[in-house]
Amino acid sequence: YNALACLKRCKEKMSDFFQMMKWSCMSFVSKPFRPDGLFRVCWDASIILFIIYCLILIPFEISFLDGTSSSVNIIDYIIACCFLLDILITFNTGYYSKGALIENRKKIAKHYIKFWFWLDLIASFPYEIATSSVGSSVGTSLVKSVAIFKFLKIIRVIRVLKLNQFTHKLEEHFQFSNTVTGIISLIKLVFMILFIAHFLACVWHLIGLNSTSSDNWMRRIGIQDLPPDERYTASFYWAIFTMITVGYGDIVAVTRDERIFNVAAMFVGYAVFAYTMNQIGMIIMNIDGGWSQRK
After folding, report:
1. pLDDT tens digits for range 200-213
2. Coil, helix or strand for 253?
3. Considering just the CA atoms, what is the radius of gyration of the chain in Å?
4. What is the model's pTM?
């Protein structure tokens, strides 16, 4: 009898708890989130980490890995779900228009659908699920179809277009000083240069890997059978010295496709160099301006 009474009380307590959680959740979503609220800032910070992960791993996975491990697939599923959840959260997040906070859901939806919704939808499509379903339902005759789905994952990288928007919101929320903002801008600049070099390295390796010629840049230096980390180091080394226009000559373009991409990479390097010099000058001016105001 005592045991039954205890179970009954536990059941009532659990029922009260779930009822309280239900009302808490309802009150939590009854009003749109503030774009500068704590929840939205924390969520944006997590999305920034996911975007950085995608920027690094997806090009590397496409170029250097024949298959992905189960742990990487699980992370990809989680990120895809979070990106889809971010669309729903954005539909429930207000925005500022001419200094006024807009919290009307119809206006929020209309504002979001104008541009960012379509980019987020394309970048959030769960290509991993499509790849696994195709791979499990077809034989080896359609392996190329799975490879196409694998290449489609690169579309997720376009979320980098929102990275500056997210970081700008974080800077506004924490209201950093000019010095700290300048340091953050320098860190973002270094990250941009490293990502461009990383992306060029992955494409450069992919061109050599898929070359039908008996002689290409990978065979010329004898790394075609080395582990992925060795091949990535060589590719990243080529990307860095091509971007800074040093060109030691130990890794050279051999085939026509490699020469064409080499020329394109040098133009990218010139553009990155000019942009970097301009940004560093602006950052130094902002830092000096902050110190002058303090004096």
Report:
1. 999 999 999 888 88
2. coil
3. 25
4. 0.75
